[in-house]
Write a structure and sequence with these properties.
It is a single chain. The protein is an alpha/beta fold. The chain folds into 3 domains: 145 residues, no CATH class; 165 residues, Rossmann fold, CATH 3.40.50; 297 residues, NAD(P)-binding Rossmann-like Domain (Rossmann fold, 3-Layer(aba) Sandwich), CATH 3.40.50.720. It is built from 26 helices and 17 strands. The strands form 3 sheets. Strands 12-11-10-13-14-15-16-17 form an 8-stranded mixed β-sheet, sandwiched between helices. It has a 5-stranded parallel β-sheet with strand order 7-6-5-8-9, covered by helices on one side. It is globular.
Amino acid sequence: MAVLGEVVSQVKAYTWNPIVVASRRTILSLLSRITVGQLVIKEVSTNITTVCGLLEPRQDDIDLKHPRKSPEPPNCELRVNSDVFWVRLLLFADMGFAESYMLGEVDCEDLVAFFEIFILNRSALSNATTFFSSAASAVSTIARKTNTLTNAKLNISAHYDISNAMFATFLSPDMTYSCAIFSPISSPQSLTESLEDAQIRKLHYFIDQAHIDRDDHVLEIGTGWGSFAIEAVKLRGCRVTSLTLSVEQKALAEQRIAAVGMSEKIDVLLCDYRALDMQGYFDKVVSIEMLEAVGAEFLETYFECVNRYLKLEGGIAVFQCITIPETRYKIYAAGNDFIRKYIFPGGHLPTVSQLVRSIDNGSKGMLVVNGIRDIGGHYSKTLRLWREEFLKNFEACIRPAFLEEHKNMSEEDIDVFRRKWEYYFTYCEAGFRTKSLGDVIITGGTSGIGAAVARSLATKGASLILLTSQPPSDPFVVEYIEDLRRVTDNQLIYAEQVDLGSLHSIRQFATKWIDNAPPRRLDMIILCAATMTPRYATLNTHTKDGLEACWGINYLANFHLLSILSPAIRAQPADRDVRVIIATCTSYVGGRLGKMKDSKDPLPHNRKYPTSKLALMTFAQAFQKHLHSYARPDKAPNNANVILVDPGTCRTPGTRRWLSLGALWGLGVYILLWPVWWLFLKSAEGGAESIFMAVQDPAFSAGLVSADVLDAESKLGVSAERPEDTKIKMLRECREVSIDRVEVFDDEVAKELWAFSERQIMVLEKEGALQRAAARKAADGNAKQGNSKKEIEDKKVEVADGTEARKAGSKRHRKQA
């Protein structure tokens, strides 16, 4: 037996070391692709240090007013304690890293930064791992099914849950186990507010959103430890029936309810949401982070039940749910991850569009979505505070209690348990800190540069509202939206009809948007739509209001849209980074903003396009000041910024129309010279790069301007003493550039232009209203005339029928005689 043991150990030595070397080489090769942030790897057994990525913070981009928004790349250090780490990471990827961390094979003092590095470099790392992932999956499946001592330790960690008492060591006193809502970081209150304050604010938000009154009977699906039920009764005096599947949570919730004297108002039932027999019984339904446990196959069943339990008249349901971006859902749903294996077995994160569809399908259209709010940004702080309390109380409270409950657990098992929960908190914190984009309005999003921007944003998981001149039911729009959803794997793409050539159409859309209650989410407005009227054009030279097209669409339409939407922009929560991105053109330097004529075609042909762009840029600077002059009720600083982008001259339909001079012979010349245009003009995707930088770069969330730009503008006589947060930025070729016309910064010019624009819109809208009224009157007159003719014809028929009847009667009388 001794000889056999020696042989086995020799075989292991000859096979294991090459496996480790090959795994290490492959992993380090992949990590060398890191371009954002820096990862330092120190190997304990060999004292080898490897640096992956570069750590070069750009000093010019650091936001001194909001340091948390500064684009400093994340950095962290990994300490590899065992060679098993390399093999586990190669075979099991992110799950392998999680298990190595839980088993102590690798350490990291800043896991949040580690996760941020991998999220920010996801595309490069995932593309690189495609080659060997299929081969590794077969080996990993066999390894998973082997009940080794290591796997046993991980399984023990997964199946031992922590008790109510241990949850109490890291939750706030209200015992709310869901995302809180904190004050903005700019608010003085944020420095002193506790996690409990933030949780109570969230509970009050739910109570307000559900419009709970004293006489209401509220159904809560998912009791937790009773915090919502207690706060709802305390605040409004309503009745609450709460459902839970946990015996332990029910017992503690009832104790807490009894302790505050609310047992007569609150009933906690040990009951599945599908088993409740109370049709049309409840005025309101509330569910806070319970949908994650429902599962994809039962989402429609869940909302069918909610609809059944709600009263038919006046019923309101409010839900809070963790979601996953649309672009990652297919991979997520097909696989497994750390959270679903070790924290919430059987859990499922839906997408926003999946929730909306399930609400509509499950309720047969009876439940209508009134509003969606993203509070994911608050979850990172919530998780950080939970983690800090968990680690602070672990040795003194959690470890002894856990050993008391599970006497067969070793110290090593306890350490695995601690690492699992630490990993869980940081894993989720990083995910919420690197959140996806939110709702974005785009004009010109179906062609040219606007279409390229829409594709890029959709690929990143943004929710897009494309403004089109045609109704959403138009076959082209329907097909375009369906194709974009399919290509980008993003279902959150919608169209709304707005004809930028009609001031009335713009007002209809914008007023509908700002009248929505609660206010609709609005993260970004991207204005790409523009027109260049060719020299010999005969079509589309004027808007529906009779305005010259360049002035009407390039400038006045954008002025009108943003002027009306400004309350919606300013109403966005202070923790949201709101941006208005306006596409302009270098030709603005040739524009002239003299005394504007009160005319529908106030400019000579060679000045129309450049002057429309200069006017738009002047308005953009004034609009920036307008937004920042608003005194927010929460006393937070303004969070909306206007950014100008010159995408350059690109190969777009608008450029083709302008270069061909609007003539058939010009189109022929354009086609003959196509190789020249292809060589010297950008693609639409190339032009969209600067716009996409304005969308994503953290440097543009604040008003700081680079020193080079300040120097250039000072030569124009632009004051450098203006507040930095009102100074507009301009991008060209993915870098910030100075603005070469002093009129853009002239307050008097902007004031005169603003007044002229409002006066012009007022006159044109009055004319349009009179024309629509006359058209309706004519239509009504025609309808009445048609009705009168029909009545006369009906009378004639009646008279004729009566005459025939009398003739027939007289004939019968004569026959009888």
